[in-house]
Please model this.
Amino acid sequence: MADLLNCFNLTVHYDNRSALRDVNLGIRIGEVTALLGPNGAGKSTLLKVLSGMISPSHGRATFEGEPLNGPHRGITYVPQRSDVDWKFPISVLECTLLGLLQERSRWRPYSKQDRETALAALHSVGMDHLAHAQIDALSGGQQQRVFLARALMSESKALLLDEPFTGVDVPTQEMLVRIFATLKLRGTAVVYATHDLAQAAQTADHAVLLNGEVMADGAPKDVLTADNLMRTFGGSLISIESLQAVAL
Amino acid sequence: MISWLTDPWHYTFMQHAFLAILLVGVIGGTIGVFVILRGLAFLGDALSHAVFPGVVITFILGGNVVIGALIAAVIISLLIGAISQSERIKNDTAIGVLFAGSFALGVALMSLQTGYVRDLNSFLFGSILGVSRSDLWLTGGVGIIALGTLWIFRREITLISFDRVFARSLGLNLWLFDQLFLVLLALAIVISLQMVGNVLVLAMLVTPAATARLLTDNLRRMIAISSLIGALSGLIGLYISFYRGVPSGAAVVLTATVIFGLAFMLAPRTGVIMTRVRYRMHRAHPEADTHVMPDQPVGDRT
Model:
């Protein structure tokens, strides 16, 4: 499988502090990649560079081999839920339709077909029955689903998600995993930031451990080892498996 | 009663004033929705005071005060942007410094003029007497430009108002849209100055929109209700001003504030009284209560 997104010697500085150092990475077509690391490890920064929102201080990011000089229509970014004003008076359907903002004429209202596309996207995340509800009436999991539906409106080649599993219920987590699998079959590259090691081990084809720099990169079984995790997160590691063995 | 309503319309200056306040109510009500949703009330207040030196200078030079106010608004908004680039000074601090400084400059310039107290009063609190036919054309023209621009960029401004990170990821230039909105806000402020005055102009932006927010959760309905309340407050306020001799700005703003108070108490879903009634009913018959409380997520079928 070819690389869709690449980072070459990528470094990002905020003021005088470096958020990412010398990152080299390849994200392949039809692959689910989990970015893992402690708070402040640079996961969100890396996603913002890959979505073209932040320009690196050094090095470069490429999309389909071309330098990424800003947001690209082939890449869709799903922000953290905490970045949004959920009290804004907008319905689930209207919020989803905003996913078409760049692709529709500003002179015309959204067509019936656009609305049907939005309802289909909401149906795929189990939210079509709440299409006319206000976004502030939704639970955390439901909000995450609406974000995903909005992202699905544009058939992009790469979907980047910042902490999609954080603070959501189990049905939403299962739904996210199902949607990732469907997107993978379509050839979409999915990249998401997470703290959940077990979730990453089960869901991702590719895991990247970050802590300011890439600590490990590869298949989850090769990356999520005790040694790599201790180097990335620090402290000591307690394996639940060994505790169970002691209990038995 | 009928003559009480029709008498003011016999005067040309009142006909102009009524038309102007209707325009101001609709324009302020519409732009104001985004002002309150984006939490920009302080910026609106600052901008309305900061345009004062522009008003005074054009008044002294004998030019059109609306144009003077507009130039001042653009200069002040650029200065706010420039000062808040400093790492040590936050945006609201920059706004506070410039707002007070430029208002003081306006008062100082005004005091250098003879007979300034009367003129200062009309600038600060509004005067319905001075609305000319050309003012009406200017207000209408500026209003069409402001509302037309808002309509053209409605989706971008909506998205930026509630999800800035996603908007940025789509490639929208947030700085450009913020500046565009600032100009729209400045336009709404300057056309309201003559009617409601410098000190109270913010109320035309904030109060009708805040009332509408209490009454609906739908953005389009919110804009419609806010415009309607803005226009209605203007009409009622002008009648009060005409018959009671109260400055037009104070009368219009007080009317809008009373309507806000009524909505705050009586709004069907969010009003204080209805919320208490529902709470008591819920306590008396918890099993019969099917109402979804605002903080409770709506039903999920999974």
Summary: Confidence is low (pLDDT under 50) at residues 291-295 of chain B. The first helix of chain B runs from residue 2 to 6.
